[in-house]
Amino acid sequence: MNIQIFGTKKSNDAKKAERWFKERRIRFQYIDMKEKGMSKGELASVAQAVGGIEHLIDPKAKDGYALTLVQHTPKSMLQDVLLENQQVIALPVVRNGRQATVGYAPDVWKTWE
Fold first, then answer.
1. Which residues contact 83 (CB under 8 A, 6 or more apart)?
2. Model confidence, pTM
3. Which of 62, 69, 83, 102 is most deeply packed, by most CB within 10 A?
């Protein structure tokens, strides 16, 4: 397994995801979204794995301006706008190769083992 967890230090669900993988002694790479964020390729891969880029948007995101901007962007331009406003991506994003989840999803992660 090649697990990547995208999260922030303040995200409780990202902390829970980290703990879930640590408890099972599954190695993972943690990427802090505030420091690095996702590349265009990573974003496209995750979007494809979760059924579309619109599934990455957190409707409860704290940055209301960025959330409104992303929600009113035409789908054809959404990837570029989301790359610039990654603070509205629901966390954690957990990748395992071409598979990915958005949010805390241990039921899905169990199937990866």
1. 37, 38, 40, 43
2. 0.92
3. 102
